[in-house]
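To: structure subgroup
Subject: Chain for Friday's discussion

All,

I'm putting the inputs and outputs inline so they're searchable in the archive.
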Amino acid sequence: MIDHIGIGCSDYARSLQFYQAALAPLGITVLVELTPEITGGDYSGVGMGRDRPFFWFGSEGGPRGAGMHVAFAARSRGEVDAFYAAAIAAGGRDHGKPGLRPHYDPDYYGAFVLDPDGINVEAVYRGPA
């Protein structure tokens, strides 16, 4: 089981705005913020989650975008729909509208968007309607 994941971003402020809006419908919010003053350098980042930070992103260097996929667990199909709408409104690009994906599992309901760096971000609900 994965405890947490971290990704880099090319524009920290833009990514912060995107993820705060896109993940709010899933109940995922900023729980920890790291500033350059705290890290002792030029790194800025946040840890997001529901009860503990499990998704981190920041201004660190390195490859970004294509080929990376992050999926967030939703608690209902409605949350998946709300995630998709919020992510698109926040500047995400469509990468798969909300719907059933029975080729994964009969009850797999997901939606996909590309974040500002081209990372494939998904919300998924695995349960009956």
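Points worth raising on Friday:
Residues 77-89 form the longest helix (13 residues).
The two ends are 26 Å apart (CA to CA).

D.
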